[in-house]
Known about the structure:
Layout: E1 3-8, E2 12-18, H1 23-28, H2 33-40, H3 46-63, E3 69-71, E4 77-79, E5 85-91, E6 94-100, E7 107-113, H4 117-125, H5 140-157, H6 164-167, E8 168-170, E9 178-185, E10 193-200, E11 204-210
Antiparallel strand pairs: 1-2, 2-6, 3-4, 5-6, 7-11, 8-9, 9-10, 10-11
Helix pairs in contact: 4-5
Amino acid sequence: MPLILQHIGSHYRWAIWRINETPDELLVSLPQAESYQEAAGRFSSESRRREWLAVRALLYTMLGERKDIAYSPDGKPYLKDGSALISISHTRDYAAVILGEKPLKEVGIDIERYGERVRKVASRFMRNDETACVYHGTDLWAQLLHWSCKETMYKCLNEQEVDFREHLRLFPFTLAEDGEIEAVEYKTSVQRRFCIRYRLHPDFVLTWTAF
């Protein structure tokens, strides 16, 4: 079953889909498959087609009905009928979607596949006052979590030219299999505070927030 994890709260829900199907197999699971096939055809990469279709298949599975996703000029997704807030993320072989209902104003989600590549870019998003603590003998989980949390924050900011190192900060935390992290943004005059939930999976890190 491609739906591997889900959470249903009072005002939001999220779910994760493991992408192990071909584009054609994903199309079979969708209503009015012809329209999805035409839209997915604009991607030259098969992996991008799979990710795009998996998000739609996941959304359909979560709601039991078709909802069309559109994008604002800055690339932020929204449901065309305005029935819920939505945030989307995908990484190699996985897709994640979070849906929020009133009175929420923003939701954000990010999923990052576990791997060494994050070390090469850590200096671009980790501040001097942030520390990658050791978890299960490595600081890689903490680095990946910093990156993912800041992706989730960015999706809620609705601001351009956000510098992850300069404008986004995570406060010290003790790493566990799941938990929450306090954070703040310095991009706006409001300096909004965030409470970001996270979960560690052997294959990936998942972060999300709703407010």
